[in-house]
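Can anyone check this?
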Amino acid sequence: MSENTQHTPNLSIPDHLNYSDDHVWIDTSSSPAVLGITEYAAEQLGDLVFVDLPDVDTQVQAGDEPVELESAKAISTMVMPVSGTVRYINQAVVDDPEVINNDPYGEGWILKIELDDDEPELLTAESYAAIAK
């Protein structure tokens, strides 16, 4: 167990990321910022079978739901915690949605977004751990 990861029972919550209360993580340490769903969200959805992503250069606003995630259990959307322009999509998760289940914080990233200036308040790993139960 790494010192820089928060843990709720059986869940990893990396400290270097920020989180939304809609279970989306964002890494703003690079530009464009990288987004995905948390391990908690992936476990709640179950095995993903289909992922629909927006086109590159799509403008998104905080609160938009441009990503559709489908599992045997449910169809869900990813609520954007930030506004900006989609610069990259992860074609690997479209081709094999289980990548998100297997590695939500690594190879299972979903979008890379060039952020608009006005960043909303995001949760720290510690704050997110309190709601991911």
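Reply from J.R.: I decoded it. The longest strand covers residues 84-89.
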